[in-house]
């Protein structure tokens, strides 16, 4: 869980974004619920940047993001090799 902000709560280390979500919505998330950072920044724990997802939904979002990143990297590599035309 690198890059996540960790906090101590009830003598346990937990990820801050789950804690913020639970406190804001006054709920206890089930263990299988993942809190997704909408803008991709794992350190941006503003409530408007957090959304609960199940594992399948979370993987789907990241698959789309990862595909877009790969496409951009491929284009940048092409531009650096052949220039912009």
For the record, give the distance between the C-alpha atoms at the N and C termini, rounded to a whole number.
41 Å
Instruction: Determine the mean pLDDT.
Output: 89
Q: What is the string of helix and strand elements?
A: EEHEEH
**Gyration radius from CA atoms, angstroms:** 17 Å
Poorly predicted regions: none
Inertia-based shape: elongated
Strand content: 15-25%
Helix-and-strand structural type: alpha+beta
The side-by-side strand order for the widest beta sheet comes to 1-2
Number of domains: 2
Question: Treating each run of at least 4 consecutive H or I residues as one helix, how many helices?
Answer: 2
* Helical percentage: 40-55%
Number of strands: 4
Q: What is the makeup of the main sheet?
A: 2 strands, antiparallel
Describe the structure.
This protein has 85 residues and is α+β, with helices and mostly antiparallel strands. The protein has 2 domains: 1-53, no CATH class; 55-85. The protein contains 2 helices and 4 strands; from the N terminus they run ββαββα. It has helices spanning 16-25, 55-82, and strands spanning 6-9, 12-15, 34-37, 50-53. The strands form 2 sheets. It has a two-stranded antiparallel sheet with strand order 1-2. The chain has a two-stranded antiparallel ribbon with strand order 3-4. A hairpin with a 2-residue loop joins β1 (6-9) and β2 (12-15). The longest helix has 28 residues, at 55-82. The mean pLDDT is 89.
């Amino acid at each position: 869980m690198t890059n996540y902000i960790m906090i101590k709560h009830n003598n346990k280390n937990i990820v801050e974004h789950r804690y913020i979500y639970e406190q804001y919505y006054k709920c206890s998330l089930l263990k299988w619920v993942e809190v997704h950072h909408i803008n991709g920044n794992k350190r941006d724990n503003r409530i408007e940047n957090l959304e609960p997802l199940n594992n399948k939904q979370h993987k789907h979002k990241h698959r789309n993001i990862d595909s877009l990143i790969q496409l951009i990297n491929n284009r940048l590599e092409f531009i650096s090799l052949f220039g912009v035309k």
